[in-house]
Write a structure and sequence with these properties.
The structure holds two protein chains of two kinds. Chain A is elongated and about 60 Å long. In chain A, strands 1-2 form a two-stranded antiparallel sheet. Chain A is mainly alpha-helical. Chain A has one domain. Chain A contains four helices and two strands; from the N terminus they run αααββα. Helix content of chain B is 55%, strand content 10%. Chain B is mainly alpha-helical. The longest helix of chain B is centred in the middle third of the chain and has 24 residues. In chain B, β2 and β3 form a beta hairpin. Chain B is elongated. Chain B folds into two domains: 53 residues, no CATH class; 99 residues, no CATH class. The two termini of chain B are 19 Å apart. In chain B, α1 packs antiparallel against α2 and α4 packs across α5. The chains are: A mainly alpha, B mainly alpha.
């Protein structure tokens, strides 16, 4: 009986996780610029992957598989924000201006927070 | 007890226990003396190398964030779930109604590690991405006006500050 409940729960989570991964991909296609697309990709990174991992843990029949899936979860939590930040930071420092506001106009020079990295480097040099 | 973990001996103990647990959990060998011996040896060599490299300090083995980080991770997982629902709703809207915004949020954590945890938590939450870190502020790109909530993000920062307590700087030199 408990096997059947776990199996049904697991399949439901697979389906939900798969739908979230799909929604993330759809967002990457629909959103207007680089920064907004990164937000959509974040859905795939977090909830999509987590639910699929949880579903796999429910399918596992020994403890070691569950432990290893848990390690995958931990390393995903540690590494995915670092890669997202690296890409977004490179774009920001490289001068790609985000579309802002409801009318999605590119942020003007000097409007909103600007990259601080370049300014600090010249400070240090002087 | 928790103070002891911030001393050099405490960090060696914490790293040994953590590496030993990792080895045991990944291998699941409990009754093979030869393999267990090799495992113990590799743990010992790693701990010795870490000490020899001088990275057995408050950054390399950050014992101070425990146990406070555990309830924080739980809280963060719930927040990530809530944010996912919001972003998915934006994705599935028939006509997109985004209003992206750049904001600055103060990051007053005492250590670089605390600031990193805060910045990564913001990035991990869908709808907000840390694009730059100034000395004590995060530059954040938010997907909509509602997600660009400085108070809510500041509250996340306060939670990180709460478990990221200051440690005397001299300790890093001593190690």
């Amino acid at each position: 009986m408990i096997d059947v409940i776990l199996d049904v729960l697991s399949r439901g989570l697979f389906l939900l996780g798969g739908l979230l991964v799909f929604a993330g991909a759809l967002g990457v296609l629909r959103f207007p610029d680089f920064y907004t697309r990164m937000h959509a990709a974040g859905v795939t990174d977090t909830m999509g992957a987590d639910l699929v991992l949880l579903a796999m843990a429910l399918q596992a029949d020994d403890l070691i598989t569950i432990v290893k899936l848990f390690f995958i979860f931990v390393f995903l939590v540690l590494t995915s924000p670092v890669s997202t930040h690296a890409a977004a930071h490179a774009a920001f420092v490289g001068g790609l201006r985000p579309l802002t506001g409801a009318d999605l106009t590119p942020a003007e020079e000097g409007e909103g927070p600007r990259p601080v990295r370049a300014a600090r480097r010249t400070e240090g040099a002087s | 007890m928790l103070g002891f973990l911030s001393s050099l001996a405490g960090r060696i103990l914490a790293l040994t226990v953590a590496l030993g647990a990792l080895w045991l959990l990944l291998s699941f060998y409990f009754d093979e003396p030869t393999l267990l011996g090799f495992g113990a040896m590799s743990v010992a060599v790693t701990v010795w190398l870490t000490h020899h490299l001088g990275i057995l300090d408050r950054e390399g083995v950050p014992t101070r964030v425990f146990p406070g980080i555990l309830p924080y991770m739980f809280w963060l997982t719930v927040e990530i779930g809530k944010a996912n629902v919001i972003v998915v709703r934006e994705v599935l809207r028939p006509t997109l109604r985004l209003s992206p915004k750049m904001i600055r949020v103060p990051a007053n954590q005492v250590s670089d590690l605390g600031r990193t945890i805060f910045g990564n938590s913001v990035t991990l939450t869908p709808g907000t991405i840390t694009v730059d870190v100034d000395r004590d502020t995060l530059v954040i790109h938010a997907l909509t006006e509602a997600l660009a909530d400085q108070d809510a993000i500041g509250d996340m920062g306060d939670r990180v500050t709460a478990f990221d307590r200051a440690e005397p700087r001299t300790q890093a030199v001593k190690c």
